[in-house]
Amino acid sequence: MAQEFALAKSAVSRRSVLGIGAGAAASILMAPYIARAQSMTLQYGHNNEPASVAGAQADWFAEAVAKNSGGDIKVDVFPASQLGKLQELAESVSLGNIAFSHNTAGGIGSLYEPFAALDTPYLYRDVDHLMKVMDVNSPVMAELNQGLVKAANVRVVYAHYFGRRNLTCNKAVMSPKDLAGVKIRAVPFPIYTTAVEGMGAVPIPVDWSEVPTALATGVASGQENPVNVVLNVKLYEVQSHLMLTGHMSNAEVVVMNEDVWQGLSDAQKQAVSTSASEIRDRATKAIADNEAKDTEALKAKGMTVIGVDEGLKIGEFRASVQKLVDERFGEKYGDLYAKIKAIA
Q1: Pairing of strands 154-169, 241-257
Q2: Exposed, middle or buried, 253 (CB in 10 Å: 0-12/13-18/19+)?
Q3: Rounded to an integer, what distance in angstroms lies between the CA atom of residue 263 and that of residue 172?
Q4: More confident call, 88 vs 29
Q5: Which of 58, 51, 140 is nearest to 102 (CA)?
Q6: I need a surface site. Which of 94, 130, 179, 193 has the fewest CB within 10 A?
Q7: Cα dist. 339→117, 223, 264, 323, 343 in Å?
């Protein structure tokens, strides 16, 4: 029975992501080597607006795959949560309803829990350390990727720098005590709600697609995201203050359905891998090079930007967040944190 279920799941996955009928799916199962020689169209769904770097890089990836595969693989991109919210997108890749998506490491943790450790606040020494850990060939990522494939039928293709997450609110916030009782939107995954709670606020788990409405209606009084996102989604229109807490350094994780990966020819796999490497570097540079400029642009849009020079108590935020993280995740992820710290 288990073998029959696995075969059926494989057939459904291949049919869904390739957009083919039941008869064709059966032919693929009976003739896998023929299938690997065929061209295909794959779906990539994500939650970001196309104007953001996270959204644009999906389009860059689609263009690169088409070029590097000689037109053999076409990737159709569906942005702005057209194919579902964050949790739904993660599950859709696992089930094979879509071939690609991207998510936070915390979101991927909903498929394989240890992945969430990669989004722990104040974990990385700097951006270079983050990107070394998030490289698909790093010992940490290789171990986690193996577990993700086994647990959820999903593999990491690449991860690009997403930015340092900062707090926005409709008032000045200098320390955790200023957030007492304040409702702050949190990415709806445990490591993120813990970060917001550790900062002193009341975390309100809200999917990204609902954030502008939540802020405009007062369901949440603030949120946290990199400055690139704040600028491109025009959150300055509903938020007056930006606090440079830098509480979390993020990489956006691009994942792929494992059945689809295994159905590619060696040449097609190389085309995907080459494209992944190109876009990882391009997107990382686009974010890193523009963080300071985007911050100045938010000032020009009328936001009050508060950093250490303006009295922001980073040490208090760090101590408060790390205390709660240690209580909830220290024992669970301690070995993984040690491995991350060891990467030079």
Answers
A1: antiparallel
A2: buried
A3: 53
A4: 88
A5: 58
A6: 193
A7: 11, 30, 32, 20, 7
The token duo for 306 is: 């508060």
Task: Give residue 210's region: left, alpha or beta (phi > 0; psi -120 to 50).
Answer: alpha
pLDDT band at 16 (very low <50, low <70, confident <90, very high): low
| Average of per-residue pLDDT across 257-282 | 98
The answer, yes or no, to whether residue 227 has pLDDT greater than 60, is yes
258 vs 94: CA distance, rounded Å: 8
Distant-in-sequence, close-in-space partners of 87: CB < 8 Å, separation ≥ 6: 107, 110, 188, 207
Cβ distance 343 to 139 under 8 Å? yes
Map 12-27 to HEC letters: HHHHHHHCCCHHHHHH
Element (H, E) at 108: helix 105-108
Q: Over range 47-54, report the average pLDDT.
A: 94
Tell me: pLDDT of 253 over 80: yes
Tokens, residue 33 = 């080597």
Specify the residue for token string 């879509």.
Answer: 98
